[in-house]
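Today's session is about reading a structure prediction critically. Students often jump straight to the picture, but the first step is always the sequence itself: look for stretches that repeat, for charged clusters, for runs of hydrophobic residues. Only then move on to the predicted structure, which in these notes is written as discrete structure tokens rather than atom positions. Here is the chain we will use throughout the hour.
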Amino acid sequence: MTTGARAGSQPPTQPPSDESASAESASPESASAVVESAEAAFRRVEAALAARIPQRMIPDLTRIADLVDLLGAPQRSFPSVHVAGTNGKTSTTRLVDALLRSFGLRTGRTTSPHLESVRERICLSGAPLSPEAFARVYDEVAPYAELVDARHPDRVTYHEMLTAMAFAAFADAPVDVAVVEVGMGGTWDATNVVDGAVAVVTPIGLDHTQWLGDTVEQIATEKAGIVKSGSTLVMAQQSLDAARVLMARAVEVGATVAREGIEFGVLSRRVAVGGQLLTLRGLGGDYGEVFLPLHGAHQASNAACALAAVEAFLGGGRGLLDVEAVREGFAQADSPGRLEVVRTSPTVLLDGAHNPAGAAALVTAVGEEFAFTRLVGVVAMLADKDVRSVLETLEPVLAAVVVTQSTSPRAMPADELAEVAVDVFGADRVEVELRLDDAIDTAIAQAEDETLGGSGVLVTGSIVTVGEARTLLRRGTR
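Below is the predicted structure for this chain, in token form.
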């Protein structure tokens, strides 16, 4: 690892083995062994990370601060764009990343949670670390994490470890800029050891109330903690309560504020094949004929926030950025698991909506951009979510729902979810399957029974659910 000066002595870096050093000239058999060895190392690291999942919420930056200090403060070796909010964080982070890359910058991106592989949480130039690189950065950071473990009553957590790994990988690359998504909240999130030149706050609503507070003001206060002295705050459209908190924070730290609907925003949007065509007002002017391969008004809003963030980061606001570079960046953007079409005949959509605001955006987008005559839902949720409100929001667009459960230890059991679903939908519109794969099969069969065509399946309820469904469907087993 080469992330600057270390505090204390550094464990010697292991030199590459003869086998890996000569992989290019190795026989097919030995090359296969190298791949298997890298995969085995990755599985070992996955298990080690899983052992760090905390049993309780630990709102404390002391462990991550100690860890990055021991690593030589890698987060200070690159500028950052920091993204928080209740809904749209991951999509906005990915859009900022895509735009920055279109301007020739080498980016690091860290998001959470992941859909299919933990490697998705640490990306360089838009691509997840390879299993080998992921294991290598873990092995470089782990000895320092163990030193921190010994200093505190609580061990370095899963999220803290991944955050430190991301910053170390970005510094080693090195990257020109990091785009950093908050895990939860803001003030006490492990990512908040960065001082983002730009802070983006996407729409704030009620979620994670057991940890962040049960009012919008309390949650906004936590998320406002990412706004640092002298930074630019890019603020999506917010409720009045949330906006007051964010503006007060900006005044407190002397941040410049750019507000959606005032300094920037979406001027027009229309549905296009595979997405939508936008005209965006940025901080430096208007950008027309921008194709965004994502569905829904909420994604257009995310794109506007991403554009403003990149303009602020690159010194925009004094004039237009290169319009062709903006178009190229948005055209290449993606956000897996967010109204993602993974199959046709019948169409199967995946969307990670897991709170009422996310479900409302999903319902609006489905109504605007898909002409379903019958839509069957597959829903599995986590037990700590506002399950009834999500189901009530989805009810008008779903002809039937198959309730199930994911493999998450936090998953609501399928029979408990079914009780709520029956109250909302009525017994004749609800089926129960204990396994997600069976639930998807049942929903597809129901959709295929639609004799007039135009039927579809929507898998939703949590990021875990969508990730597991994506793995099943992309393997071609359904």
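Discussion point for the tutorial: The chain is about 40% helix and 15% strand.
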